[in-house]
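We emphasize that the prediction below concerns an isolated chain of 356 residues; any contacts that depend on oligomerization or on bound cofactors are therefore not represented. The input was used exactly as deposited, without trimming of termini.
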Amino acid sequence: MSYKLLIINPGSTSTKISVYDDEQEIFKETLRHSSEEIGNFKRISDQQDFRRQIILNILKNNKIDINELDAIVGRGGLLKPISSGTYEVNEKMIRDLKENAQGEHASNLGAIIAKEIADSINKPAFIVDPVGVDELEDIARLSGIPEIPRKSIFHALNQKAVAKRYAQESCENYEDINVIVAHMGGGVSVGAHKKGKIIDVNNTLDGDGAFSPERSGGVPVGDLVRLCFSGKYTLSEVLKKITGQGGFVAYLNTNDARVVEEAMLEGDSKAKLVHDAMGYQVAKEIGASAVVLNGQVDAIILTGGMAYGKPMVDLIKEKVKFIAPVIVYPGEDEMLALAQGAIRVLSGNEKGKKYE
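Result of the prediction step, given as a token string:
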């Protein structure tokens, strides 16, 4: 049996939508939202009717009948820590997302809008592997300060998808292998996957791990504390230095890795230093993950937008190839990963989970 799915992936100034017939994408559109349109809403959750109506209009204009859909799948937002899997959207999830229980982010709208459309046609709505997927071992949670436990917030959807892809292409079960996945996009997450669970990973959102195009990564703690109390910056300004204005933005005034690579190849020594420092830090995180897995690593997977950059990939490969074979899956096919998660449940190959 085939399944027809609508996939909804909201970003801060855009909403990506796709329609899948099983794993075949038959329609896609990126809906852009101007700052003036978004500025009309006080809170992100207030945008739900606005974005839902745009989605429905696009589908109608392209002669896509929502009544023919078998399910709606939304990008998982900032939810409480949960195990990996596909979850049917319920009222508890909607309440937590609307109340921003774990934080306010445009991805929170994914489940909300999916549920509204699904209810209108009496079909299920799902999310798959949201950023709060938490499979950390207890030993990985201790930071050294009891009031600040380490948290699992990262690119769970793409990390799980590429790890399962590697397992399938290797004729293995994901639950039987150990891999290290380094997702390199606007943020960088490096996860240690042990027999189907990500037992350790850096908090990509909030200043942990390698720096990236937009994020500071882990920085010297004492100096950061002194910066906070210097009187030069507000809380908001410091947080922006960590997420949004760190990494490439701070050093080179751009978050575009392609611009950095081009400048480096044209002889810009500062661009090369910053570019190579990021690769150096990613490689260090991979090495640390190998220790977490006791050196028993079947493969290292490089993924995310920056995995398209040959100089970055080559630099990391050279440093970590002694650990395990390095596989490159550039980009992040989130829409397909969302579709696949729903199909596994609809087809009975995986049991859907309940958000409680």
